[in-house]
């Protein structure tokens, strides 16, 4: 029902579409419609064919039996008149007007009423159809009945939700009916809908909320069903879609420990707050809620960390920062807490460890003692001391000294706050009242620190009393005496004891007993402070020894007095006790104007006595608070007089204080309300049973004094000092608490502070003083299990220990001695802070295969009590040991091919199938698989990222490895492993693991084929292969040596890795020192020589086929210098260019060299043809360095070179100046003939001459032996062709011969070449002698792999290498010519210039798709030679040739028409009255293109005056071509030389001859001179036309004819074949446009600064007219196919010696006598090939005249003609070479001139042989003599013997062997021909019954099948000597003789 929602149904966002609820009980209703259709209302109008109307008329509220009419409005909205015809509704329920034509003008409307008459309560539907001339349209009529319908969305997509989370969305649904509709939703879990039910009024919408609460991570798609209607009879569904995922949150914190993140606060001052943050990351795509909670902490521990979030949500792919505040309160305590991050539905929890240390202030005094010296009574002394805070914590201090005048010492300020790292100077006054010595030890209280003490001493003298003056040394002696127990004795007693030698004086001057008593332990500052505050009774109260006299000499009781009786004066008593053994004087310090007084103010007190004093409180003001510290000094009475005391027995006085507090508030009077602050109301003591102290700061923040008091009886276990006191406004009081925690102590002890003596003002202090026992928790209930471990290896396991107390504990693991070799733990000792968990690493190192059960112990104790009893916990450790091994997943891993210099990463999978982890180390051994590589110590190309590692049990480990091959070869790496112990030592021998194989490659390209066209079409593939150095290029591209790293590392060619030109590597010294091109980075440099061609000739195009022979893609690019220009900065540009740069600019600007395409990419196996072209636009030698670069491969510098010569220049092109001949053995009789190629790069034939004087000098230097000979030192080379210079190298010694030879070109340049030849000794070299044919071009492909444009004929092989062959042998190869065209028929013709090679058929035609079999035969001569032949096959399209003949015929007809047609005019008419075309004059007359008036041809017998001109023209108005005058006009036949036409722009002296020749050098027919040469009537030599590209000497004539006898078409003479110019009917020419850009650099002179000359106006006009001349058609230029043939012939003796296995594969034509004469004699020198030319003069004329006469007489002799015909028709007898003359090997037979089979020339003379007669004649002379001697009747036996002798004689004849070879070769060739034609199936099985031949394959029409019965009589003469068409057959008698054998 529901349409599928396009797109991803789980994408974010609310995607829903509206659908219609379905009434399942009424199938006839339309139950679904889209939201768009639902939203359309009837008022919407549509346009149909220009008429606007309703799309539908709908009746909804209707009753049965009524009529309901609605109006259909039609409106014409077009600008033209509309005529509508309508078809009324088909049913009778809908009615309208009678059909009529409705005419609607533009903008008008028409109302059509439609009436609905229902008869039944159902739905009705019909249409009204309207027709117009443009088409038709319909309007729907529909009547509906009310029914329940809901519009609900098809699907609702909820936002993605996390498991155990919820997401929600809302959707709307609507009551689409006009009935009240109830609904009820039902939906399965995990979805919920709200509301689930309800009632909807008509058209009412309802908003439904969908809740999604998944419990699993799934994709949910649930159908929510809605039942609606009166009773829920209808239903519809909505697809609810939801996606749930598991939540995942991460904590990001700076620190990291194993298992949790760490948030470190560091050191935080006490009382300060530090805030740090951590992040909660949600990397998932769903919103996730979280909660942060603390882990369970020890009881009674303080909460110093506050987290800013307890719970929250993190949006997808976001994070939130959570603040944590650290508020430490206890100094020198490190607090550790753990926060747990919990996500509902998550699979794990995340912990965060927070830790911080609380630090306190560091306060000190600049001096610990102040000496006021001696002060007179009534005077005062001032001293200062500095209090220093050297920490970063604020410090509060308070001196416990009265400031109200009850003390002789006054300090200002007595309390205060020191900022961090600051100090304050304190002022102290000394005002003594009694003449005596004063000493008081003042305490300085510090918050959170122990108190400091300041010793104050001073002496007061009066006029009557002068006591001993106290000095600081006396305090030093006093402390020593106090420690030795001597301070209880008065000074006089000590003096007596010293006199009696009961005591001694030590080295420092202190007194000492002979036997020192037990040393009194030194008190801590807190203990000393408490003792001073408690009046010396602290030790007894805290359980001391009771011998307080040793340390407390005077005590006071009580130390505090409270006067809380209001304004009534009261007094209380205080008791002082003397604990010394001397009499003391007690003196109270008086304070004037004080409310407190002591009576008596002084008295004496005997030893060990007590006395009471009365303290009175007399307030002077009501409603005030008073407080003071009463001071009393006690001193030995003997100290009053200094004369009674020795200095060393002097004892300073003691000072005791009584703290008094009182108030004068009257009864019923309200006391002041205190305003104070109390830091740290909760005081926590360490959980140790030790005396501990804590400090609390009470600060008066009001402006009134306050008094406080603590009741000591309220909490006896906690002592507070001071228990009462007065705090002035803005001052503070430091309270010190002391207690000893106990185990049975409550968790919290309350202490109540009472303020201002009122029970209303109290503050409670909570004290925690509970003893806890040290407790640690071990993970796993005290058990640790190790996984199975390999013997000798090590396995580790983490183990957690947690401190469950509030005490910092120190722990230490104890492992027994034998077990220490097996297990170990790190760290084995440490400190655990309260609530801290530490992770320790246990190691298990087994040494034998067994199960270990070990029990180490954990000992721990509190840090504060190192000497206490230590706790111990045992740990059970279980481990199993086994032996393990590993193996590779694959025994052999083949990486394939890897780029040399690059790296490839791969993974070696190792498998451990055992039950224990194995530690191993890997080793790699490298070997090369390619044989024949040089032994070279290469680094190991395989690198392992990790050579050592550990594989877990039953696991797979990937060892990442990298291969970096150093050269191109196949590598093999053997991987071995050894297991390791825990210490890393090897346990066993290496074991084989796997083998990795790979091959190093680098991007390689190879030139697989080369073609040439244009001006270099005449070059063979071998020549162009050499010119372009393609062999060296392939060698560089395929070289095994590694390219430079700079080349390999670089990718595709960029603009900064180029070169400087090869010609000029660096700029010239005169140029700028800054280069515009970088330096050369490649050592590979090759020449691309485009050879030479005449100026203006076709571009030299060379096509190279590049193939990616490797296995990786190759990107290549050719970079020109312009591509590598470095753009210099403006300051570096000088504007000066070197000559090389200017030359490069000229070459590049004129695009002389071009490459297409310049770059590309080849995948493995792909090929690409690249075209290299060179334009011959400027004369000279052009060079351009081009960089050929492969991506990640080599860079090769290609030096492009091309030569352009003048058209009349004689030029031989040499690629190099040195030629090396093939090595020749010394001592040989027949050295081979070798060749050197000369290429004519000009446009005219040339003659050359080799200077043989250096050769003669070399011969003279070698005792007259010709070491080097040039067989043809003179010769001629045709334009664009190659001539072979034949050489013979005959060395005398095994050394290298070198000679410089000059080659002179007639009317040309002279080139000096160096020829080198090497001789070697066969006896020394043996089998390694270089006698075998080493073809230097073996890499040249023998087949064509790419086609030239428009090439249709292909050779099956372009190169044939026949190898090493013996002399006088014949080698045959089969070739195929194939016409690949589908429509063109081609003609081919083999141009055979070498008589040693024959191809059959020589010419023929091939139809489209046809093939032809050609047989090539090489007949080796009698002398050893090197054969390097280039055979050209000329291919011409038959259609082009036919078109040429047709065009030529039309041209000749036009020429004849113009020659024969003429006009007659009146002779008396003046020239000015000549009629021309209207409006024209003579100068405006047009002539044939390229001619002027003087060149215009006139009818025979007419002159110019008789010529008619166009109307309105005169002769002076006739236009002439550029450069011509009237005197150059050509005249018709019969005119004189002055009227002869010459080429354009020339006179008679400018007549063109072959390029490079003059008139005297023009070749004529043999025996003729220039004067005797016949020309057409009326023409001279200059007017004679020759074939294109030929001169007169090159014109071919039919056999036996001369030039004068050459036949021409009927009615034509030689004159008609000249290149005459015929006007073309077309007179329009191309439009010459001006330059649009700057002209290019046109010549070498332009480089210097000149520009090319712009053509003149006349020249441009001549060029326009030249295009309108109809010239004589030229024959089509044939396409050349080159066939290269290479071979080397050896003498028979040499061939048999060095190639014995090949001797049986060749047939030696022993009829031909090989030349075995030893080279070196004069008779062996071959004669010169070219006779010296006849010089001009009488000699030449006589010879020419004589030969001409002889030839003419022979041609005129009819008997000679008859003899020729008869000689040709005479049948040739078989075996004519068998003659009766005796065999003479050395004397040739004069008559043996029969053409040698298979050759075009007569073979060497054959030895005379007996002649075999036919038809029963004698077989030989010997047989004839025998028959003459025999009687007429012979016996059969004798006759049979005679026949056998004759047969044996015939068999041994060389001629018989030759004939047999011919027969067999002919037979095999016929079989091949039949197989090629399809008449013979060579692979078919033999059959008994012969079947008819299969249909012959299409073949050449010109290649006829050879009949085995006899030759074709029509082609007998033509094919004589050809292997496939032998003109003789073996006689029957010879066959009979062969049958006998």
Please describe what this structure looks like.
- It is a single chain.
- 11% of the residues lie in helices and 36% in strands.
- It contains 22 helices and 111 strands.
- Strands 13, 14, 16, 18, 20 and 21 form a six-stranded mixed beta sheet that branches.
How do the helices and strands line up, and which of them pair or pack?
Layout lengths: L17 E3 L14 H5 L5 E4 L2 E4 L1 E4 L8 E9 L5 E6 L6 E2 L5 E4 L4 E8 L7 E9 L2 E9 L6 E4 L1 E3 L3 E2 L4 E9 L5 E6 L4 E4 L2 E4 L4 E8 L6 E11 L4 E12 L4 E3 L2 E3 L2 E10 L4 E9 L5 E7 L10 E3 L3 E4 L3 E9 L6 E10 L7 E10 L3 E3 L3 E8 L4 E9 L5 E5 L9 E4 L2 E4 L3 E9 L6 E10 L2 E13 L10 H12 L7 H9 L3 E3 L5 E3 L11 H9 L4 H4 L12 E4 L2 E4 L6 E9 L5 E5 L7 E4 L2 E4 L4 E8 L7 E12 L17 E10 L12 E3 L3 E3 L7 E9 L5 E5 L7 E4 L2 E4 L4 E8 L9 E7 L6 E7 L7 E3 L4 E3 L3 E2 L4 E9 L5 E6 L8 E4 L2 E4 L4 E8 L6 E4 L2 E6 L8 E4 L1 E7 L4 E2 L3 E8 L4 E9 ...
Parallel strand pairs: 4-11, 13-21, 14-21, 24-31, 33-40, 44-51, 53-60, 62-72, 63-72, 74-81, 83-90, 92-100, 93-100, 102-111
Antiparallel strand pairs: 1-12, 2-3, 3-5, 5-9, 6-8, 6-10, 7-9, 10-11, 12-15, 15-19, 16-18, 16-20, 17-19, 20-21, 22-25, 23-24, 25-29, 26-28, 26-30, 27-29, 30-31, 32-34, 34-38, 35-37, 35-39, 36-38, 39-40, 41-42, 43-45, 45-49, 46-48, 46-50, 47-49, 50-51, 52-54, 54-58, 55-57, 55-59, 56-58, 59-60, ...
